[in-house]
Amino acid sequence: RFSEGWDPAAAQMVEIKPGAKLDQVVMDHVDFAAVDLAGASFTRARLTGVGFAHADLQRCDFRDAKLESVDMQGAKLGQAVLTGANINGASFVGANLQRARLDGALLGRVDLRGADLHDANLEGVRFVDACFYDDATRFPQDFDPELQQVGAFDRILPSRPALWRLSPGADLDNASLRGVSLAGANLSKTSLRRADLIYVNLKGTDLHGADLTAARVCTGLDDRRPCMLESANFDDAVLERAELSWARLGHASLRRAVLRQAALGGARFDDANLEAADFSGARASAAVFSDANLDRTNFSNAFMVNTDLRRARLATAVLDGADLRDARYDGATTFPAGFDPEQAHMKLTIEAARTQSSVTPTKGIAQ
After folding, report:
1. pTM above 0.70, yes or no
2. Dihedral (CA of 340, 345, 349, 355) sign
3. Which of 4, 105, 150, 196 could form a disulfide linkage to 162, CB 3.0–4.6 angstroms apart?
4. Which helix (H) or strand (E) holds 302?
5. pLDDT tens track, the chain, 367 positions
6. How far apart are CA 87 and CA 145, in angstroms?
7. Measuring CA to CA, which residue among 349, 259, 238 is closest to residue 302?
8. CA 305, CA 202: separation in Å to the nearest integer?
9. Do 248 and 266 form a contact (C-beta atoms < 8 A)?
10. How far apart are alpha carbons 112 and 164 in whole angstroms?
């Protein structure tokens, strides 16, 4: 409600309603989730980070609009017009695009998992970067996702697959999935060798038996976009030579996973299950293994300087040749029989030392 006599139109305000005229508007991170905008016009608009999740966008006009990182999850886009639109980093997961027009649109890093594109017009669509779909995605009858190529319209750029199927057992070798949210997805037994997974949200994702050899998952500390792998399932997965520096793997399961020679500096394995995992030769300086299950975990020849091993269960772990200088432990840390943390130049934490002022530091505890 406005003050009596005050005209919002005179202040160049626009009423958000079905059929609204929003041509050439510039919007940044506005939330229209579940809003009814059926028939609205956004021609040549610039929309960045705008949320349209579960909104009614049927018959909306997005011709020549720039849609950057918009959220269209579950949105109704039946008969919408996106002709010539530039769509980058957008999520159309579960969206209804039946009979929508995307002719001449530019698509890059668009997530189409579960989207319904039945009878949509995809004539002349150009893929400027990889896009993603799954077994639940419905394409027009005459559209073959496996034949689409990035750069096929440009003689200068080398062509490569434009649409990657994200489903169990899929071949995603060398795929660039940077910035995509795959939280909770089932990618079991998927091949992701040398894949680019930087900034990908893998929280709770099922990757058991997957092959991530030499994959780039996390390469540095960025609090604004952390590498989220908490509670993910990596049981029996291969992460040999993978880059996981500063990754967050708290409560994740990596039973029998292979992480030989992986880059794990600063990675967090808080309360993770690493039973029988192979970390031999891994570079894990400053990594956190507190409260982790390290039963029969192999750390032979691993570089573990300044790691956090407080409350870690290492009684049956293999530590032959591991560099544990300045690694922290406490009175609850258990070690293999005969292992001397002082001889390995490890550090008993100050808190533990205070509570054990009259107790000799733990040596060779086997449980």
Report:
1. yes
2. positive
3. 150
4. none
5. 656 766 655 555 667 899 999 999 999 999 999 999 999 999 999 999 999 999 999 999 999 999 999 999 999 999 999 999 999 999 999 999 999 999 999 999 999 999 999 999 999 999 988 899 999 999 999 999 999 988 655 555 556 789 999 999 999 999 888 888 888 999 999 999 999 999 888 999 999 999 999 999 987 766 556 678 999 999 999 999 999 999 999 999 999 999 999 999 999 999 999 999 999 999 999 999 999 999 999 999 999 999 999 999 999 999 999 999 999 999 999 999 999 999 999 999 966 444 444 444 444 443 3
6. 18
7. 259
8. 27
9. no
10. 10
Hey, how many other C-beta atoms are within 10 angstroms of the C-beta on 144?
9
Residue with tokens 């720039």: 66
| Local structure of residue 106 (DSSP, 8 states) | E
Residues 6+ apart with CB under 8 A from 210: 187, 188, 189, 190, 191, 192, 234, 237, 238
Token duo for residue 246: 């500063």
Structure tokens at 189: 């037994």
| Sign of the dihedral defined by the CA atoms of residues 358, 363, 366, 367, in that order | positive
Class of residue 13 by CB neighbours under 10 A (exposed 0-12, middle 13-18, buried 19+): exposed
Dihedral-angle region of residue 284 (phi above 0 means left; psi in -120 to 50 means alpha; beta otherwise) = alpha
For 45, the token pair is 């608009």
Query: What length does the chain have?
Result: 367
User: How many angstroms separate the CA atoms of 41 and 39, rounded?
Assistant: 7
String of DSSP letters for 237-298: -B-TT-EETT-B-TT-B-TT-B-TT-B-TT-B-TT-B-TT-B-TT-B-TT-B-TT-B-TT-B
What distance lies between CA 246 and its chain's CA centroid? Answer: 14
